[in-house]
Amino acid sequence: MNAVQHETKNDFHSLVRNPLKFRFFLLKNLPAAYFSGLKLNDAGENRCEVSIPYKWFTRNPFRSTYFACLSMAAEMTTGILAMGHTYGQVPKISMLVVAIEGNFHKRAVGITKFICEAGREIGDSIDLAKVTGVAQTVRAISSGYNDKGELVAEFWITWSFKQKS
Predict the structure, then answer these.
(1) Tens digits of per-residue pLDDT, 99-113?
(2) Residue 39: half-sphere exposure toward Cβ, Cα within 13 Å
(3) Does 3-163 carry CATH code 3.10.129.10?
(4) Is the pLDDT of residue 54 over 50?
(5) What residue segments make up the domains of the chain, in order of their start?
(6) Which end of the chain is more exposed for a tag (fewer CB within 10 A), N or C?
(7) In degrees rounded to 5, what are phi and psi of residue 142?
């Protein structure tokens, strides 16, 4: 990674780490995430942590967090990592979720924190897409934990990255 790419990634992480700018981004681009109370706890080049609360807007009839809200938070961890690697890239890289799988281990009844540490794999896939000009996919895991540190859910999100022409 050259100095310009590193600086661009730092610019992106500075933007998303700003709570006001991130909330505005959600309101403008992902209103469901905004109204669900999704929060970015940490974002770096290789790791991202996002939390989703259990509240009226995110609940299901079984008095736990609705699976779609959990999957939204999990996808956000991988998406932030991908956006960090594609931000300001020339040529531009398109990114698209092509598959999602999930396993549920416990009821989500409080704040659920999702963590993804697949930034290196995501970055490598994006770099390969740039070098080869061929679409690349990467399957990243995001694991959700309750306030006791117990595993609540796991999601595998498969992203496709392709150099825009």
Answers:
(1) 999 999 999 999 999
(2) 10
(3) yes
(4) yes
(5) 3-163
(6) C
(7) -130, 125
CB 58 within 8 A of CB 66: yes
Instruction: Give pTM, 2 decimals.
Output: 0.91
Provide CB contacts within 8 A for 37, sequence distance 6+.
Answer: 52, 53, 55, 57, 58
Q: Which of 42, 81, 90, 73 is nearest to 154 (CA)?
A: 73
Q: Are residues 160 and 136 in contact, defined by beta-carbon separation less than 8 angstroms?
A: yes
Angle at 37 between CA 32 and CA 51, to 5 degrees: 110
| Tokens linked to 114 | 């999702």
Beta strands in the chain (DSSP E): 39-43, 48-52, 93-104, 112-116, 136-145, 151-163
- Helix%, strand%, coil% for the chain, nearest 5: 40, 30, 25
